[in-house]
Amino acid sequence: MLNLLAQIPITVPDGTDEIVDQVKANPVLLAILIGVGVLTAAVFVWGIMKQGIKAVIFGGLLSAAAWFWYFNVR
Predict the structure, then answer these.
(1) What Cα–Cα distance (Å) separates residue 26 from each residue in 20, 21, 30, 71?
(2) What string of pLDDT tens digits covers the 74 residues of the chain?
């Protein structure tokens, strides 16, 4: 654990060029960043679709209730 913590740089690079160079020099870091990016994009899309499905079901139920009320209760 301490060995891993010793490898973490204390300072943040000043420019984006330094960060890009570090990522290009370390293929494991590149793979991790790509994996995290793909995973978070998939979670985002799944969340949007889940909310869309909930909205469709809710709208359908409200529509059915309105039509039921219009033809049977009024």
Answers:
(1) 10, 9, 6, 68
(2) 667 667 666 676 677 788 888 888 888 888 888 999 999 999 999 999 999 999 999 999 999 999 999 998 76
- Please give the C-alpha separations between residue 8 and each of 3, 5, 15, 32, 36, in angstroms, as whole numbers: 9, 5, 18, 15, 19
Task: Tell me the backbone φ, ψ of residue 21, rounded to 5 degrees.
Answer: -65, -40
Determine if the pTM surpasses 0.90.
Answer: no
- What is the residue extent of each domain of the chain? 44-74
